[in-house]
Amino acid sequence: MTQESQKFVVRTFGCQMNEHDSERISGLLSTEGMTAVDDDTEADVVVLNTCCIRENADNKLYGTLGHLKTWKAQREGRQIVVAGCLSQKDRDGVRGRAPWVDVVLGTHNVHRTADLVREARVIGPITEIFDEAVVDDHVLFPSALPVRRETTWNAWVTIQIGCDNTCAYCIVPAVRGREISRPIDQILDEVAHLAATGVTEVTLLGQNVNSYGRDLALAERRETGSGSARPLFARLLREVGAVPGIRRVRYTSPHPKDMRTDVLEAMAGTTAVCEHLHYPLQSGSDRVLALMHRGYTADRYLERLTEARRLMPDLAVTTDIIVGFPGETEDDFVRTLEVAAEADFDSTYTFIFSPREGTEAATMVEHFVDPAIVADRFERLRIVVERTALRRHEARVGRLEEVVVEGPSKRDPGLVSGRTRHNKLIHFASTEPMRPGTYATVEVIRAAPHFLGGRLVEVLAEALHKVRIPVASL
Ligand code: SAH
Ligand code: SF4
Ligand code: F3S
């Protein structure tokens, strides 16, 4: 079979960066003439783009690879590719546990995917993992490669790769490398290019976005002997927000220790930047925050949040919290409950601590918290957050929200689903079919902890696209 007639599936296991890498993998394989399909049964190549942030991600991968062994045996010429953070971490271990895998690649050589698939067909199984990012603009930043997106109206834009922080629980710095910012002009060019193809919403991606540009400023100072070494994120927000055609700018994730007033002012002063802050707390206990090396206290976190709300009174705030960090006592956890209640979150992503080999927290074995206690804490936190979320949602009933249409509702195909500027899911009725990417005004008529119900008031702007857009390349 020729490469051109081949079909592929990419399955994504991780975060937004991992999803964005999947779009690049899809883009690269499509550029080779291969066709994306939804189902393994049709596919000749299955790519698993893995994550290793928590242990269950590992278990999920090796479970899936077990099924794929049978899938591969069912037809001659089928190939299995394992990419992403878990292969970066496990390296030769992936093939050790699943020798039937054809290609193993890591986080720093996504640009090689299509070449490796082609080469493996000729020479047999290949493992290729780079130790660090190749400092070449064409491959360093994902968006300089072809990208095949599933949606027409929104897009991720990488502004920074890697992470220089040392959070005691986190494997990301080990698998994504050191922090490198993408030049501002390159980001603005990409956003302008996306806007020209009909994208109206962009999400800026980095592990620690508010330190964006510090390395660029330092390099400039070294070269010119002048200038400050301050991060450039506030400037970036303003400039991205000014790109014609961009109606919504989002970003993830900021780090509370680096959250500065200039960023909050840029959010408040740039119409396109959405009134939503994802602001990872991790723990409400100062003792645990110190053990985690987060670099802030609960008071400092709350103080920044108060400032954010002073500048943006109608701000939605979401967070990440880890329950059961080694040594977390009942008192520590009660502090988390208190801070969560005071922060008045719209929603939280709550994670159970998972030891990752190679991280500091994984060595604190004698302080691991009993799983039954952790499960109980997880549930208590869920109740507190659902209560604040529901109250905040109920307060929106009767208000008009700008909504971007995503498609038919998964809960009820008779309804349309969309996202408010707060990034809340809203389901509403429409007599006309509505294209994904259409902007509309919707009145909120119903509240639940995890979504809103609404009534269409008017269409503001029709989506430009009728169908999925093909592969785009800068
Ligand atoms: N850079 C981002 C987070 C990336 S990881 C930030 O600093 O906010 C996403 C989330 O996964 C983290 O915020 C944390 O809550 C969770 N997480 C990371 N490592 C974990 C671990 N070992 N166990 C449980 N949760 C973890
Ligand atoms: Fe991990 Fe901390 Fe870096 Fe986020 S800031 S990626 S939690 S080390
Ligand atoms: Fe993301 Fe998982 Fe890697 S959270 S950065 S895909 S370890």
Question: If classified by CATH, what would the architecture of the largest domain be?
Answer: 3-Layer(aba) Sandwich
Distance between the terminal alpha carbons, to the nearest Å? 30 Å
Distinct bound molecules? S-adenosyl-L-homocysteine, iron/sulfur cluster, FE3-S4 cluster
The low-confidence parts are: 466-474
Here the CATH topology of the largest domain equals: Rossmann fold
Radius of gyration: 23 Å
Helix share, percent: 25-40%
Task: Report the principal-axis shape.
Answer: globular
Structural class: alpha/beta
**Tell me, what is the CATH class of the largest domain?**
Alpha Beta
Spatial order of strands in the largest sheet: 2-1-3-4-5-6
Q: Note the main sheet.
A: 6 strands, parallel
Q: What fraction of residues sit in β-strands?
A: 15-25%
Helix count equals 15
CATH homologous superfamily title of the largest domain = Methylthiotransferase, N-terminal domain
How many separate structural domains? 4
Mean pLDDT: 92
DSSP strand count: 19
Textual characterization of the structure:
By secondary structure, this protein is of the alpha/beta class. The protein has four domains: 3-128, Methylthiotransferase, N-terminal domain (Rossmann fold), CATH 3.40.50; 149-254, Transcription Regulator spoIIAA; 275-395, Transcription Regulator spoIIAA (2-Layer Sandwich), CATH 3.30.750; 400-461, Nucleic acid-binding proteins (OB fold (Dihydrolipoamide Acetyltransferase, E2P)), CATH 2.40.50. Helices cover 35% and strands 21% of the residues. The protein contains 15 helices and 19 strands. It has helices at residues 16-31, 55-73, 85-90, 92-97, 113-123, 137-140, 172-176, 184-196, 214-224, 233-241, 261-269, 286-292, 298-311, 330-343, 371-394; strands at residues 7-12, 35-36, 45-50, 79-84, 103-105, 126-128, 154-158, 160-161, 180-181, 201-205, 248-252, 276-278, 316-323, 347-352, 400-408, 416-420, 425-429, 439-447, 452-461. Strands 2-1-3-4-5-6 form a six-stranded parallel sheet, sandwiched between helices. Helix 10 (233-241) runs parallel beside helix 11, helix 11 (261-269) packs parallel to helix 13 (298-311) and helix 14 (330-343) packs parallel to helix 15 (371-394). The longest helix has 24 residues, at 371-394. The protein is globular. It starts with 6 loop residues before the first strand and ends in a 13-residue tail after the last strand. Mean pLDDT is 92; it is low at 466-474. Bound molecules: S-adenosyl-L-homocysteine, iron/sulfur cluster (SF4) and FE3-S4 cluster (F3S). The site of S-adenosyl-L-homocysteine has 17 residues, from strand 13.
